[in-house]
Amino acid sequence: MKATKHLMTICAAGMMVVALAACQKKDDMSTKGPAETAGAQIDATAAKAEADVKAAAANADAKMSQAAADTSAKMDQVGAEASAKMNAAADAVGKKVERAGEKMQESAK
Question: What is the pLDDT of residue 91?
Answer without folding.
Answer: 93
